[in-house]
Amino acid sequence: MSQAVIAIHGGAGTITRAAMDAQREREYTAALEQVLLAGQRVLADGGSALDAVTEAVRLLEECPLFNAGRGAVLTHAGTYELDASVMDGATLNAGAVACVKRLRNPVLAARAVLEHSEHVLFAAEGAEAFAQAQGLELVAPEYFFTQARHDQWLRARETAGMALLDHDAATLAAQAAKPADPLDADKKFGTVGAVACDARGNVAAATSTGGVTNKQVGRVGDTPVLGAGCYADDVAAVSCTGTGEMFIRTSAAFDVSAQMRYAGLSLEESARRVVMEKLPAIQGRGGLIAVDRAGNVTLPFNTEGMYRGVARVGEPVNVWIYG
Ligand code: ASP
């Protein structure tokens, strides 16, 4: 029996103490702690790693602070297009949805694909129809609206004219609001994710996102691409956040497990090479969380901060924001 553990992230980016006021920091910390406690409870009750990561990501989707589900960022056209995935290391079963506009909890749709479909990845209307047939909740686009993301989107369109990571867009806003303090950058990627190892030593991963602010309509990032933004096998489970295109090009999540399997690296060293060497080599920014079958956890990122936390069953939860 392993000591069960869950780790979560709420995105990486230029998250600095200076750009974060005490109230906001408390809100993020409290939200991460609540989610960790819920995931820890699933594992303590004997639940599987797959159940724990699904529940943790569902709760993160419900929280408007993070760029997934309610609180998702906007496309260039001002619409919401969400991606999510889930993978079970014990069986290599996986499910994902891409470019969904009306699903309240994309991660539950990904889980339904994993459980009830011969396919792995559904996109757009087909994904919504499948989820609806599975009894999942559909919502109007207004459900995903938050003023903060809307303002970010307006600024991204005006200032950058290009797609921005959620927290990078927030940085621009912070800089504009505090021009005298240009180092107050709050760049971050607000994707959410969870990895867990249950008492049986099985691992699982789940990831969910609204993508990058001001992205082109139809753009799909790494989040629903198994092996890129999410992966789990009998070695490790990994969930990523960052510039999705680079995570796809490096097969970032799969590579963590592959280097352990083929090169005999530790979880920590394998994840470090992906985040600190391979991604930066192609200007990839972000981070990942990973757990192996022994319950080791690593949370590397190459940005200033990453919302993250770990909870081992029977121990207090730990949450961090900065580097
Ligand atoms: N990786 C996500 C994407 O490219 C963005 C993020 O992590 O915030 O869609």
From TrEMBL:
SUPFAM superfamilies given in the database record: N-terminal nucleophile aminohydrolases (Ntn hydrolases) (SSF56235)
CDD domains referenced in this protein's UniProt entry, alphabetically: Asparaginase_2
GO biological process: proteolysis
InterPro entries, per database record: Ntn_hydrolases_N (IPR029055), Peptidase_T2 (IPR000246)
Active-site residues, as the UniProt record annotates them: 191
Residues of the site described as Cleavage: 190-191
Protein name: Isoaspartyl peptidase
